[in-house]
User: What shape does this take?
Amino acid sequence: MSSNPSPLEKKQNTAPKKGANTKSKPEQILGNFAQSISEIVVDLTALEINTMVVDRITGDKFIPWQTYCSLYEINRQNAQRWGIDEETQKRYLSLRNQLALEYVLVTTDQESGLYEERMKQYLNAPPAQIPLPNPKTNNPGELEKLRSLLKNNHFVRSLRKMSELKACLDNHQRSIDEKVSDSQTPNKSRQVIGQEIKTDIIYAQTVIQLDGDMITRYSKEILDHPHKDLILKLHQESVAAGEKQWRGLFEFIVDLMQQAVEKGWNLLTKS
Amino acid sequence: MVIRGWLNSLTSKQRTSPPEARYLYLNRNIRLLLERHNSHQSYLQAIHFYLNPETLDAIQQAKESEQRLYIPKKFLSVLRYYLFFAERNSLTLGLNVLSYYEQNQAVKPLVRSLISFDGDIVYQIDQTCLEDEALAQSLTISHYWLIEQLLTALRLAWTDWFKKLAWIPYLLILGGVIVWDIHALQKGEFPLWQIIASFLYSILGKPILAWLLQQLFVLLRRWFFRKILFGGWSQQYQFKQKLLNWLSRLGV
Assistant: This one.
């Protein structure tokens, strides 16, 4: 973390100046907003709260291209080459499958602007057979397709969630690597070490459906965690806060529309 | 390129005067981390909260006494822009919030949440934090309180809009009241109850009308979202998108 930057550092930079940062026209700004809002209302089907204990919190940036590349290269051969145990391989592969499914969903949606008739045949196909655009290709058409894909808000939102799950798996693997190289545990298998590591695991997950139904799942690792009760308390705290934020969200969306118009009006009248 | 912004760089110096007692000032403890996307666009990479034992106590007290976090209007408008209006906004990318904690002269992120506006929340806590149960709870509660304060502040801004809008019916009715009073004066009959009614309206009319408008808007909003999420429009994807686009332009 970079510790104490000068407070002055920001003053010139962060404000959305009309000339620099907000070069777009008011209509464009309203358009960005309206599009994001409408997509979110369509995607909002349930509230899901996940509680994780991590080895360390990182401030890693989310770069869609990078995440796509790292998910694209997951396959069984690579996973074996990376020394990942059988159980974890399944988790990595399921992320790759999720990426492929999201791709099919976007490319078979006529509203997405990425519609391809031929992709319809993959709707019921095994995810491994779905032809994802290759980020390392030299084909300009395929690269352009990938660039457009990474501009699709729905796809980017899904990618962000996948990047979080992948970071969680990667960090777990890194902890195993550190333990394996530790001379005190020379004879243990990666799988056994993996089970001993208590971090980068989703311990509790609560899903609240729109109709009010609530489902909570716990990972089996929580049962023998020394801080089991505390993790559950913290999860409850997250659920309570999350639900409160979620309830306010409907109100919020309309309020934002209000403000969008006000903002748009101000920009229009001042420009 | 990373741009960092402190809350206090947009506000005046720490205020302690009595009228501000209902606010908690954490001027140096909230920071926006912006990332340059290209030559003229940046996006909100994260919101950082910098907490220490004193700020945790202050937040606990503020929560108990129902104080609100003081957020300067300008900071709020910057935040609103990056959350909702920028080309790469947080509605798409999610809101990434990290709480750093300062202890023994070291600052470390201990709590993080990623809030995706389509309904997914990932909450992370550093394992070292679990060793101190009171700290883990206090940090988590403070983390959520600060997020709630920021989101509530964005929501509250629209109440001003009703105050402005209420001027229209207020002035129209006031015109009617004046005509009515002049008419009564011309007739030479100006009863006491009419004087009191006219006086009360001129004083209380506008806040009451603003309140009524707000209530009406809340009812309309509930009806609208019930219809769009659960009612007849909920299955009509294309129509729903067009309607929302259209309504956002109208400001409903």
Summary: The radius of gyration of chain B is 24 Å. The first helix of chain B runs from residue 53 to 64. Chain B touches chain A through 90 residues (CB under 8 Å).
